[in-house]
Specification:
This protein is mainly alpha-helical and 136 residues long. The chain has one domain. Helix 1 runs antiparallel to helix 4.
Length: 136
């Protein structure tokens, strides 16, 4: 993959991660105005989703599974990266559960991360492509 494709993938994945961070913050707040917005928790959610976008950008280097050798589809790759990137946020959400229980928050956060990762990876792959197959 050329530097241009890598740049395109980066310029798609990271801003989408930030957009999904604000969307996730809105959904986590339940649309409440005032109390939730511009708090450390909101910025934690936004930066976690930004990191998700960066991880999806870097994961584009893997077109084949490094151990088993099968071809990795962008939906699968993005979903796995999304779940993995959401684990710190999900476990932090278990500390002070709101109207939902702690496990519900954990699984909803991981599920949202999986969906965001899948969407970001599909769009980034369409726009910027994937890197060459580096594992043979």
């Amino acid at each position: 993959m050329s530097a241009l494709h890598s740049r395109k993938r980066f310029l798609v994945a990271v801003p989408l991660g930030i957009v999904f961070g604000f969307l996730c913050s809105y959904l986590a707040s339940g649309g409440v105005s005032g109390d939730f917005w511009w708090t450390p928790l909101m910025w934690t959610i936004v930066t976690d989703r930004m990191v998700l976008g960066m991880m999806v950008w870097l994961a584009g280097a893997y077109v084949r599974h490094p151990i088993f050798g099968f071809r990795i589809h962008p939906l699968f790759r993005g979903g796995c990266v999304g779940i993995f990137a959401s684990l710190p946020l999900a476990t932090g959400g278990m500390i002070t559960p709101g109207e939902y229980g702690a496990w519900e928050i954990f699984f909803l956060t991981c599920f949202a991360g999986m969906l965001y990762g899948m969407i970001i990876d599909m769009i980034a792959t369409k726009v910027g492509g994937q890197w060459v197959d580096i594992v043979k």
